[in-house]
């Protein structure tokens, strides 16, 4: 689907220079001379290379529609992750780098969304938040409760996060998978 050059938004997938790119950051720029343009930071979906490109409103770009399906994570076999389609029970294996940075938050039985283009999977999206248990947390330092201070903690998957002083070892917390930040205490 062709769209205007200045209609690209973060998260859009476009076809540019015979490759698929996901728009990461955009910035509208209107210089003193000449026409306005959109400065877009693009990331290649297949190999992760980045590219900065300028699109003017007079240009058109090809926006790609990706198929999204729910899959359940089953197991890891080396660098390959195996998922099962929830509707037809078909299994697929994809490289672990399709998940990216949130990989440590992938848990067995977790429902994820796999995006595919023309039948081949290109990325795995984890849920926005996950519940994990704290393995180790520093003790509370007396007198720090008045300010909004945070202390380091290590989760069961080995990821380090900053948590409020009242959270202790053994507590289950909700963590944002995108940036590994503390959201709240788990309600279970």
Average pLDDT? 86
Pattern of helices and strands: EEEEEEEEEEEEEEEE
Structural class comes to mainly beta
- Main β-sheet description: 6 strands, antiparallel
Radius of gyration: 21 Å
* Count of extended strands: 16
Query: How many angstroms separate the termini?
Result: 45 Å
The general outline is: flat
Which residues sit in consecutive blocks of at least 5 with pLDDT less than 50?
none
Strand content: over 45%
- Oligomer, anyone? single chain
Number of helices: 0
Strand order of the largest sheet: 1-6-2-3-4-5
Can you give a write-up of this model?
The protein has 188 residues and is an all-beta fold. It contains no helices and 16 strands. The chain has strands at 2-4, 13-16, 19-29, 37-44, 50-56, 60-63, 67-77, 80-85, 91-95, 111-117, 120-125, 129-137, 151-155, 160-163, 172-176, 181-185. Strands 1-6-2-3-4-5 form a six-stranded antiparallel beta sheet, with no helix packed on it. Strands 9-8-7-10-11 form a five-stranded antiparallel beta sheet, with no helix packed on it. A five-stranded antiparallel beta sheet has the order 14-13-12-15-16, with no helix packed on it. Strand 8 (80-85) and strand 9 form a beta hairpin. The chain is flat and about 60 Å long. The relative contact order is 0.12.
